[in-house]
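Key result, reporting period 2: structure in, sequence out.
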């Protein structure tokens, strides 16, 4: 039975996962090698919970209880007694495998593992651990406290008990599980990222401006935000990583990352997190960069 949850990585996804786990009553250990990032994560979680209180989603007492359940550490040994650990590090296969190699020796034998990868093979990541049968994908959507969906992905070795426990956890977190096979980018990003990539090609080829493309998709397809605005929100480096996984994993030229996406990532224009992407966020209001 899962009572304590570890979260690896205190970035946007990690702090969101810690947030919803604590609100559901779980003890949470949030780990990151960067102490400053841990402090920032706690500040973000507190701010997001304040907004939930202001909107009547939770009470002050519930917020206080949830915050008291979160502790932070920059040492993987803090996970020694946790029942379930979800990795939410950068979308880089080599980094994730190293994290699991360092993590497994400190865990108790019964501990379950999950990865929040948005595109990488769960089976390959599981093979880098000492417990592939207790490992699976648990892909949360961003922002985690708001988005209802969690994709659940079994690796080839994932056993039925692990899947059942993680599915039950997903429901207890107030999320809707959707099962996906272990194919590159799973369901959501297999559909979403090629659309974003095509929007970037549309910009690259001069078919429309940033503003025209996003306006067309908001008003013409009733999307809540345009695809280029969404790319900035996701992070252009993450978009590129997912497109590369699709291109390499499915060997189909339709998944080739747009050269403009590659150029922006090389320039360090990664979207909102660097204040510049398809929009410039350094002023009072975002303005298109092209």
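The corresponding designed sequence is given below.
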């Amino acid at each position: 039975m899962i009572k304590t949850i570890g979260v690896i990585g205190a970035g946007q996804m990690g702090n969101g996962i810690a947030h919803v786990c604590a609100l559901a009553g779980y003890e949470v250990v949030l780990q990151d090698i960067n102490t400053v990032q841990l402090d920032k994560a706690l500040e973000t979680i507190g701010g997001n919970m304040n907004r939930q209180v202001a909107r009547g989603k939770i009470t002050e007492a519930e917020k206080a209880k949830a915050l008291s359940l979160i502790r932070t550490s920059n040492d993987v040994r803090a996970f020694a007694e946790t029942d379930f650990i979800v990795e939410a590090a950068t979308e880089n296969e080599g980094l994730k495998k190293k994290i699991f190699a360092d993590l497994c020796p400190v865990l108790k034998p019964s501990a379950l593992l999950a990865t929040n990868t948005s595109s990488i093979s769960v089976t390959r990541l599981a093979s880098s651990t000492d417990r592939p049968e207790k490992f699976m994908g648990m892909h949360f959507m961003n922002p985690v406290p708001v988005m209802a969906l969690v994709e659940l992905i079994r690796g080839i070795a994932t056993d039925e008990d692990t899947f059942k426990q993680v599915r039950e956890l997903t429901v207890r977190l107030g999320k809707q599980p959707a099962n996906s096979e272990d194919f590159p980018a799973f369901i959501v990003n297999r559909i979403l990222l090629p659309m974003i990539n095509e929007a970037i090609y549309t910009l690259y080829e001069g078919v429309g401006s940033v503003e025209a493309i996003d306006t067309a998709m908001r008003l013409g397809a009733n999307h809540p935000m345009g695809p280029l605005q969404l790319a900035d929100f996701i992070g252009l480096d993450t978009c590129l990583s997912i497109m590369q996984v699709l291109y390499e994993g499915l060997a189909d030229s339709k998944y080739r990352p747009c050269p403009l996406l590659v150029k922006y990532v090389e320039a360090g224009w990664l979207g909102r997190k660097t204040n510049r992407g398809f929009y410039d966020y350094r002023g009072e209001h975002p303005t298109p960069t092209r």
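The CA atoms of residues 196 and 207 lie 15 Å apart. The mean pLDDT is 97. This case is discussed further under Risks and Mitigation.
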